[in-house]
Amino acid sequence: MAFLKNNVECARGKTIEEGNNIYSVLSEKNSTMKYSVNMDLVCCDCPIGKDGRLCKHQVAIAKFMDVSNRNIIPLNDPKQKQYLYYIAAGKEMDL
């Protein structure tokens, strides 16, 4: 997953909301190519994401557009953080 950390920054300013939880992300290697990402279906038309695997384009959308899917846990949501903490620790999280 190291490729995600190193390459997600490339999508800043290159992500476009198309509507209905579908986004376009411009390719970092080919400026005329863009990838279509459906966050509801958890897929991207890039070689990695086309079969539902997590790709850097999905991570970029989650990071810069504040959108999640079932591959990405929304850690900026306080209720979700509390819920995940309860699952992991077996007790309520102190706020």
TrEMBL record:
Keywords: Metal-binding, Zinc, Zinc-finger
Keyword Zinc-finger attached: yes
GO molecular function terms noted in the UniProt entry: zinc ion binding
Domain of life: Eukaryota
Record domain SWIM-type: where: 35-66
This protein's record includes keyword Amino-acid biosynthesis: no
PROSITE patterns: ZF_SWIM
Protein name as annotated: SWIM-type domain-containing protein
